[in-house]
Design goal:
The protein has helices spanning 82-94, 123-143, 149-163, 222-228, 235-255, 258-277, 288-304, 327-338; strands spanning 21-34, 39-40, 44-45, 49-67, 72-76, 79-80, 105-113, 175-178, 192-194, 207-211, 309-312, 318-322, 347-351, 357-358. Strands 1, 4, 5, 6, 7, 8, 9 and 14 form an eight-stranded mixed β-sheet that branches. A four-stranded antiparallel β-sheet has the order 11-12-10-13. It is built from eight helices and 14 strands. It is an alpha+beta fold. Bound molecules: ligand DP6.
Length: 359
């Protein structure tokens, strides 16, 4: 269900001071627990989702801006990147109903990621949220609006959603929820909300170890993946399941029920992959190593009764999730049993983080 939210179009003439300056934001990636997979209309989700905000995986973006003719120049990790530049220019053009003033502003953007491209970490979530936080900072600095932090984050999340759905969850600390659900107060399809205070504190310090089963490029982009849901025979059942899983997961996280947390999180990961396998054309995004790692994680959990589980993005790499209290045991297990199944032994350590920050 969509609640209408209309932001007044900001023209250059509305500015209270000359629109020129420089602004920098750092914004994190996130890992979904209940997955967003399927969208319609203007970037509206087919089902609600929730994610852990990460700490170490982030984008740093510096934006220089001045009055001009709507030009965008983008440097990624120090080098001009015209394909990323074109994506941003297209996005800026697409939001001219909200920010028409950007058509008369030149932007020079310097972006870099803290994580390697091959890690399969969602770079659009961190990059697009960093971009929209910079744009909202321009509004705050020159149009005398968004002075309340809550309004600032809401609009940043709203714009981030238009740039890349999952990006809208990244601006908040710890746990971001996006998409209307009747059981989740204030939830909406238009932007994400901070639900970190609605869960047990054990989840505030959860660890995320990313096991790189394969460092190759993904065989299907997430936008193509979303589109495949339009004709997936299981789509309706899936959207119902996601709604139920979200309500059940939030309840489990509220009470600190780790068994239920694990059950739902793994079901979500495997459902995402099942949906890809049953799409037309069909994709198998896991590799042999992904399956070996999954079996080992489940066997370890069975033997030790420790609350270690995994989730997956739309790719082959495993995101292990576990409470900080079992970090030592899990690290021993990773080193002795899992590392050998990772490409070049590659593992990226992350944890739940505090959201975006102004630099
Ligand atoms: C599997 O947010 O990357 O990571 O809206 O087309 O930019 P676009 O898609 P994107 O999709 C992310 C899908 C996912 C699940 C999730 O993060 O919820």
């Amino acid at each position: 269900m969509e609640k209408k939210l209309e932001y007044k179009a900001l023209e250059l003439a509305d500015a209270k001071s000359a629109v020129a300056g420089e602004i920098s934001w750092q914004s994190p990636s996130n890992i979904a627990l209940v997955k967003y997979w399927g969208k319609y209309g203007r970037q509206l989700p087919s089902n609600p989702s929730v994610s852990f905000t990460l700490k170490n995986a982030h984008t740093k973006m510096r934006m220089k801006y001045k009055e001009g003719s709507g030009q965008v120049i983008l440097f990624f990790e120090g080098e001009r990147n015209t394909s990323f530049e074109a994506r941003i220019a297209k996005f800026i053009d697409s939001i001219k109903d909200v920010y028409p003033f950007l058509q008369a502003i030149d932007l020079e953007i310097h972006s870099s990621n803290s994580f390697p491209h091959s890690a399969g970490i969602a770079s659009s979530a961190s990059a697009m949220s960093a971009l929209c936080l910079c744009l909202c900072s321009i509004e705050r600095n020159h149009f005398a609006s968004l002075t309340e932090q809550a309004d600032f984050l809401k609009k940043s999340s709203y714009l981030s959603r238009l740039a890349s759905g999952s990006a809208c969850r990244s601006v908040y600390p710890k746990l971001g929820q996006w998409g209307y659900h009747e059981a989740i107060v204030s939830s909406t399809d238009l932007y994400a909300i901070d639900v970190s205070e609605r869960v047990d504190r054990i989840f505030h310090s959860f660890k995320n170890s990313i096991l790189i089963a394969s460092a190759k490029e993904k065989s299907v982009s997430s936008s193509a993946g979303h589109q495949l849901m339009e004709n997936n025979p299981f789509a309706e059942v899936r959207f119902k399941q996601a709604n139920k899983n979200l309500a059940d997961l939030m309840q489990a996280m509220k009470t600190g029920d780790l068994n239920e947390f694990i059950r739902i999180v793994e079901e979500e990961a495997l459902t995402l992959h099942a949906l890809m396998m049953t799409s037309n054309p069909s994709y198998i995004l896991m590799k042999a190593n992904s399956l070996v790692l999954i079996e080992k994680v489940r066997a370890f959990r069975g033997q030790t009764k420790l609350p270690l589980c995994f989730t997956l993005d739309a790719g082959p790499n495993l995101h292990l999730l576990y409470p900080a209290s079992i970090q030592e045991e899990v690290q021993v297990f990773i080193q002795s049993e899992l590392k050998q199944h990772c490409e070049n032994g590659m593992i990226i350590e992350d944890e739940v983080g505090e959201g975006a920050s102004l630099l």
